[in-house]
Amino acid sequence: MDMADLHNDTIDNRIAQRLRALRAERGWPLDELARRSAVSRATLSRLENAEVSPTASVLGKLCAAYGLTMSRLMHMVEGEFAPVVRRRAQEVWSDPEIGFRRRSISPPAQTLAGEALECELHADTRISYDAPPRPGLEHHLILLDGALSVTVDGKSHDLNPGDCLRYQLFGPSAFETSARAGAKYILFVV
Q1: Angle 79-86-168 (CA atoms, 0-180°, nearest 5)?
Q2: How far is CA 71 from the centre of its chain?
Q3: CB atoms within 10 A of CB 61
Q4: Among 3, 54, 111, 188, which is most buried by a count of CB atoms within 10 Å?
Q5: Smallest Cα–Cα separation from 149: which of 182, 119, 171, 172?
């Protein structure tokens, strides 16, 4: 594999290719996707050309427009189903601008109903999503370390290590850490 192939195979390039393909499958011009996702046409163009890395917020908006979970989108760019997923093979995606990192510890597969993510948020971080990618999506969040406040359906839940928050997502949601501590958690999505 030469350097050009390595450059073309980065996760940002694969995300860009997948985003272009999703829009093409629906026959949407950039303006239509911008309207549906509330992401500017210029940003969409730059994302689809891999000129910028997508943020968690933007990916969340695009996934909602396409009716996909973020993990499902990531699976589309990460590869095929394997029964054993070794740690070294688990794809990691991060948004360094806001301090968010996710490891796909059990990626989605067509024949499996659920998936599992290991997520980390830096201290003093807030990520919010306007809508779920699919109404009623089931979540099981187990806080491993730190402190995390999760808002679902307008109700805030303050979590400590070992706590599990279970919910079905129908509306906006937000994840927030305090100024003193970040958070590390496992998220099961079904």
Answers
A1: 70
A2: 6
A3: 21
A4: 54
A5: 182
Q: Please answer whether residues 60 and 129 qualify as being in contact, where contact means their C-beta atoms are separated by less than 8 angstroms.
A: yes
pLDDT digit string, tens, across residues 155-167 = 999 999 999 999 9
Dihedral pair phi/psi, residue 10, rounded to 5°: -70, 160
41 vs 23: CA distance, rounded Å: 13
pTM assigned to the model: 0.62
By DSSP bridging, strand 148-152 and strand 115-121 are: unpaired
Rounded Cα distance, 4 and 54, in Å: 21
The angle formed by the CA atoms of residues 127, 129 and 134, to the nearest 5 degrees, is 140
d(CA 161, CA 185): 9
pLDDT digits 0-9 by tens, 173-188:
999 999 999 999 999 9
Structural domains of the chain sorted by starting position, each given as residue range(s) with its CATH number in brackets? 3-67 (1.10.260.40), 77-189 (2.60.120.10)
